[in-house]
Amino acid sequence: MIRLERRPEPSRAWTLATPFVAVALTMVAGGLLFALLGKDPIEAIRTIFWDPLFGDFASYSRPQLLVKAGPLILIAIGLSLGFRAGIWNIGAEGQYILGAIFAAATGLAFYPAESWLIFPAMILAGALGGLLWAMIPALLRVRFGTNEVLVSLMLVYVAEALLASMALGLLRNPDGMGFPGSRNLAQYPSAANPELIAGTGMHWGVVLALVAVIVGQVVMTRHQLGFRVRLAGQSPRAAVFGGVNPSWLVVVCMGLSGALAGLAGMFEVAGPAGRLGIDFNVGYGFTAIIVAFLGRLNPIGILLAGLLMALTYIGGELAQLQMNLPLAAIQMFQGMLLFFLLAIDVLTNFSFRFGRRAVA
Amino acid sequence: MSNIDPILLLSAIIVVSTPILLAAIGELVVERAGVLNLGVEGMMITGAVCGFVVATATGSPWLGFAGAALGGALLSMVFGILTQLFLSNQVATGLALTLFGLGLSALLGQGYIGVKGPVVPDLYLPGLRDIPFLGPVMFRHDAMVYIALLIVALVWLFLNRTRAGRVLRAVGENHDAAHALGYKVVRLRLAAIAFGGACAGLGGAYLSLVRVPQWTEGMTAGAGWIALAIVVFASWRPGRLVLGAWLFGGATALQLALQASGGVQIPIEYLQMAPYLATILVLVILRAGRAPGSLGRPFHASS
Fold first, then answer.
1. d(Cα B114, Cα A357) in Å, to the nearest integer?
2. Which of A275, A267, A106 has the alpha carbon at shortest distance from A196?
3. For the domain that residue B199 is a member of, what is the CATH number?
4. Which pTM does this prediction carry?
5. What is the ipTM of this complex?
6. Domains (ranges, CATH) in chain A?
7. Is residue B293 domain-resident?
8. Tens digit of each residue's pLDDT (9 = 90 or more) over B161-214
9. Where are the transmembrane segments (chain B) (predicted)?
10. How many other C-beta atoms can be found within 10 angstroms of the C-beta atom of residue A236?
């Protein structure tokens, strides 16, 4: 007979060890799954986790690590704040799209004028786009008590439709011979978000992501907002008595995460993506949810988790090219990672006891 | 507007609302048992691919539906084991289930894109089908439409007229009290979660076998989330669930009819937003009733 017994204190050792055990278990389970599909499991794991960094094409894929980790970390830092307080913004993907649309529209409005003011204006517009989109579920929850999970998610589909209409209509490149998609912002010097150090993939969005990690860490441990967030997450009633206004907290957490997601979209559209196309969004907003949990909702953890998730993205693309695995297999891999993480998490708060319970 | 046929439109509403209704009735039972499973989308799409694969392999759509229900139920057990035995966070686990299901389905359906599945025949209802207006709207559909409505009726009966249904509601309202009375909270919840998974699987298979009918990656396009919204809209009551599904089906069918008629000068992308915006609007206007008391809270016998 195996029983679970609640620990008096959450185990610190397991809190730290859980992500590593989860990654290891995911590799084993993923390998088994690939074997079932008739692919060589060792080769698949190597292609996904090793080759992007040290394989034959590593000089191409290594810079991609920061390019992909940047938006993931930026979005996840924002989400982690709300998740800690029990505020579930699941629609970061939509806020990311809106940030990109606002920023691209701002940049293109000035085309072809050149001014150093254009790029900062785009940053502001991107943050504003994400913020406004996140305010819809936030204000609806505060005012009408609607569920923010459902509303923020519905708005992802609305944002995708809006993106398609922008790429086909208002923001379409007039010199693009009728093809969908906007002008290439990366080729418009005043709006471009270039690679800062050649061969590293470092751009302004990655810089901001690193700043967000540091600021997030300070806010969480030193600032009153971090204290209120943690209090509301652990005991909503105590938080109310402690003077935390729940509505205020919803608006702040949703607004911050929306603005950060919008910024991620802005830096993506001005840099690595370059143009606003129908398929501009690739699921960073959803993967960031996994990054936030894998990083234990802790800024430093999110930094590491973001890099790992970026690695699986690049590895997934390699596996698609070299082993004919569908790109969605990576999504399954990521879901599996979250499963293992949540399952092992039980060891943080509970310990296993063997044998029958003593008479209480 | 003038070239939209009201009979075709109403008949389309029934078809469009069926997959949502199936997924929603399953989730309703799960939530009445006090569990919040946000993985409906993942179970639906897994059902869609399982149903399609089995149906094309055997040539029988009914075996396809059975396979879809089984696939959905199996996947839901991942959620069940994690949340009920490992006491994981239900919101996070549900999201993981959706991501996992989307990936798994793409992997399983890799060789089935563009393949034509077997045709699901309409149920022949002599007499009823010839009633003017009502006949073509209500009685010229495939059997799954009626099975979905039957499941809703049976769930209503179960929840309100049977002892087991009352126990399930008690577990959902207050799991500690139910446990103290000697009811098996975890076992009952696992059964409810499996039922929810099977229903979501059926809903997904209805998409891939009847409504579309073929397999494409990510074909559920948020239907699972809309099902979750409809459960809230229905205040966790089966009767209002049908109304919610038809309202949503109405927004979708009207949007599709407007696209096809070409009579209105609205870009297709804006029409496509309609069902999602309608769902948000409904969530705002109709305040939900009281949610089951233990909804989303983990249960551990020690506390």
1. 57
2. A267
3. 1.10.3470
4. 0.86
5. 0.84
6. 1-39+327-360 (no CATH), 40-324 (1.10.3470)
7. no
8. 999 999 999 999 888 888 988 888 999 999 999 999 999 999 999 999 988 888
9. 6-26, 38-57, 63-87, 94-115, 143-159, 190-209, 215-234, 241-258, 270-289
10. 14
